[in-house]
Amino acid sequence: MRYVEDIQHTTPGMSPLKTYKLQSYSDKLLLFGYMAKIGLSRIASNETNEEDNILGSLIALPTKKKTGFYKFFERNGFLFPVSHLEY
């Protein structure tokens, strides 16, 4: 997942308006499966668990640090389809 952060300074003395734009990788296939008592897991190409309890990991991310969200989506993709042609 590629991302950019657009910053618009609209009013002097006011906080800027930040827009985060995401774009998927069209060549990176991700496979997921549900495991009892573990939850949603990302499956590696050799069919082993690569990361367990993905939704729990998302919920546990600190809300103030956007880098955690970027890293999560880089590893696990997005929760719904995101274009690979445009942001």
Give your account of this protein's structure:
The chain is an alpha+beta fold. It contains two helices and five strands; from the N terminus they run βββββαα. Strands 3-4-5 form a three-stranded antiparallel β-sheet. A two-stranded antiparallel ribbon has the order 1-2. Strand 3 and strand 4 (39-43) form a beta hairpin.
Topology:
Blueprint: E1 2-8, E2 17-23, E3 31-35, E4 39-43, E5 49-51, H1 54-59, H2 66-76
Antiparallel strand pairs: 1-2, 3-4, 4-5
Mean pLDDT: 86
Strand content range? 25-35%
**3D shape:** elongated
Q: Which spans have pLDDT < 50 for at least 5 consecutive residues? A: none
Order of helices and strands: EEEEEHH
Cα(first) to Cα(last) distance is 10 Å
Please give a handful of descriptors for the protein shown.
87 residues, alpha+beta, three-stranded antiparallel β-sheet, two-stranded antiparallel sheet, 2 helices, 5 strands, 20% helix, 31% strand, elongated
